[in-house]
Amino acid sequence: MFHNLSHKVADFSTDLIIEDIGIITNISKGIVMVSGLSGVAVDELIQFSENLFGITFQLLHNEVGVIVLGNSDKLQVGNEVKRTGRITDVPVSEKLIGRVIDPLGRPLDGKPAVDDYKNFPIERDAPSIVDRIPVDVPLQTGIKVIDALIPIGRGQRELILGDRQTGKTAIAVDTIINQKNENVLCVYCTIGQRASSIAKVISRLEENGALDYTILVVTKGDDSPGLKYIAPYAATSIAEYFMRKGKDVLIVYDDLTQHALAYREISLLMRRPPGREAYPGDIFYIHSRLLERSTHLKQELGGGSLTALPIIETEAENISDYIPTNLISITDGQIYLSPKLFELGILPAVDIGKSVSRVGKAAQKFIYQSVVGDLKLAYSQFEELENFSRFGAKLDERTKQIIEHGQRIRMCLKQEESKPVSLQEQILILIALTEGLFDSIPLNKMKMAENIIKQRSKDLGELETVLLSEKLSERNRDKLVRLLKDNLQHLLMSK
User: Does the annotation mark 124 as catalytic?
Assistant: First the structure.
């Protein structure tokens, strides 16, 4: 008996599991200080409990600052925490398409968690310069004023900014809706938005069939600052997974103002030195390293693209504020939404004079360039003369014509929400506009005139291929002008 026991003891072996365990020494809102994790790395995932994790943010001499990725109310000083040995990551998979998840990949739509996935770190190096190619393929938004005057290319970073409640989210959502037949996958990332606003966006996407090609990464206003901080990085890693597979991807960050506020809160609680407006010194870096990941890859790497539409909220029309100027300097242009235009009912409230695309015509279909002409200049002249005419000055006939034409431009660029305009429809409307076919149409019948042209675009016969070509010849342009003039003549006769 003793011999058998000695034999079993001699043969006994076990696999030792070494765990690095620390102790919580201090708790603040959304962050904790932990001692005892001597070998921990920056951005490493730390486990508090089965469903609560954190990310190491600040390494000090005797303790570590950890951002809690969830509700920290149940944590207490003295609780044990464990290292996971993993850099903070997010699950990526084709099965995420059509799902609503949080930044850690946990489902928020009541459906089961994705079981077949890979893990991508949320922090990834941006593609190097030699891995990129110029942005030259347009991303059609379906919004006339943007596609015609502020074109966006696949791989571009175009900032959307404006005061509260001016339609910033509406432009981003309409752009997603217009990708239905464009073979573009969309990722929509909400950062600290109200639950009601998120539900409204999801409802709009579902009504228009856009959820079939969209992934939503969601953080609400009452979520922890840590989740808000990692949300855009996690969403970008998901988007990069598909870009690396050769797909064109559109990502919307709604909005980076809340991201900056969450980062400032975390930094101040960590007692990091504050800078301008109490933001930490690296506030520019956290956004630049995020947006630099959007690009157009060369064909050897699949030829995929990642287009970014970051949203930023301004206060009192101040686009020269700290965070807006940071984002303007990082991105490739901006779409500015004016509260004054919004109040006048000019929607989308895009201020053409303050909006720009630094990629410009390089990412616009060539046919646009042959029909837009000097539309932007004509509209700018109209706005100046319209302001001048309000003083009651007597106007000559030429000035009156410019104002009348400008009013038609404004009416044509107006557009209802969730009603994208196809390429063919846009080209026909722009031809009619630049040729002055609308100038004799009363303003109260402009909507009817536009609808007539839209209806005509569905029955063009052989001319339909002309609108899809890269160049519009003078002969074909004259044909289209005569066709549109004949159709609008009936509306003039009913005047």
Answer: no
